[in-house]
Amino acid sequence: MNNHTHDLLLIAIVQAQDAEPAQEALEGMGFTAERLPSVGGFLGRRNVTLLIPLDRGQSEAAQNCLHETCRQRVEYIAVPMESAPLPIPSPTPITVGGATIFGLEIDHYEEL
Length: 112
Description:
Layout: E1 8-15, H1 16-28, E2 34-39, E3 46-54, H2 59-69, E4 72-80, E5 89-97, E6 99-105
Antiparallel strand pairs: 1-3, 1-6, 2-3, 4-5
Helix pairs in contact: 1-2
């Protein structure tokens, strides 16, 4: 059993290209960040899910770090034009990136 337990678990879903800078920045601040590969449901793009255990009062610093290292960007996807007689794809801009962050309170923690 681990003697030190954390009070909060941040789950941050970030784009694959932002994962390394985010993890390095978090670890540079003294946080631990475990990486899990994941895939976005809407666009099917590669993401990374970071699991970040925190003590009370550390959440804001970790979230600010993610805000600084995970940027939003505009990408284009091909969407068929509805009024066209043939399915001609039209490039449509979408905003991707940033971080989706969930905070979970930890009631119980055990290492087996």
